[in-house]
Specification:
30% of the residues lie in helices and 26% in strands. The chain has 129 residues and is an alpha+beta fold. A 4-stranded mixed sheet has the order 1-4-2-3, covered by helices on one side. Helix 1 packs across helix 2.
Amino acid sequence: MATESLSLGRDYWVTANARFTPMVRARKVKHLRSCGYWLGCQFRNKHGLKKVPRLRMEVTVTNPPRGGCRDVANYHPTVKAILDGIVDAGVLEDDDNRHLEGPFLRPGVGRSEHRGVASFEIALIPLPA
């Protein structure tokens, strides 16, 4: 299992509840995809994952401090854009069902350290082909 973390400010999240203009959404997705590419390079170079036949992706989301309940499923569009960047980096051939299980999102324990910043701990687990 290989794990990397990424912290993102509120300006870069793409949530299921937010309504953005297409231009704003495209700008955010482009940034997230480039972050995913960087993470993919980390997984490839540091952890030796390159063109793995099958993976399971688990993401632990630690929310920024604030009152009320949070729904980690709302971060799925953010994680999808990051996953596309990981695929672009060559860790995985494609993110279809034959090559990937997940991504599975779960809430982290506690809150992230900084206001307006969510932390994403991404675990990639190689599976038998």
